[in-house]
Amino acid sequence: xxxxxxxxxxxxxxxxxxxxxxxxxxxxxxxxxxxxxxxxxxxxxxxxxxxxxxxxxxxxxxxxxxxxxxxxxxxxxxxxxxxxxxxxxxxxxxxxxxxxxxxxxxxxxxxxxxxxxxxxxxxxxxxxxxxxxxxxxxxxxxxxxxxxxxxxx
Length: 153
Known about the structure:
It is a single chain. The chain folds into two domains: 2-62, Ubiquitin-like (UB roll) (Roll); 69-151, Translation initiation factor 3 (IF-3), C-terminal domain (Translation Initiation Factor IF3). The protein is 38% helix and 33% strand. It contains four helices and eight strands; from the N terminus they run ββαββαβαβαββ. The chain has helices at residues 15-24, 46-63, 80-95, 114-127; strands at 2-5, 8-12, 28-33, 40-44, 69-74, 99-105, 132-141, 144-151. A hairpin with a 6-residue loop joins strand 3 and strand 4. The two termini are 51 Å apart.
């Protein structure tokens, strides 16, 4: 097998010799590439190696962006003032980097106004097109019609 490591000259040796080299340095012998011909082993401190790997994984996880979805509910007959109020909130959510899910909730017999609900959602999307883009177009699921808006980069 081929033995590599810090302070060790890369050489092809037997398994016993490789173990003896690792033991003389008070380190571990770790198989890096078993499919190579001959197999490659590295002499290193295995616990330190695992610790560093774990540390790298934590850094990667910390750097990844967490997607936050904020929800705004409207009715099929939402008035202009209420619409503007909700629009202002949605704009601030998008500017801070959150996604916004806009729902139009149909209660009782208001399900008759499906087209009015869709118009409200499209008007909402059009008002926010400078800060966000529509991810999912309005679709009806049961008694609610929803649409997803993602922030522009």
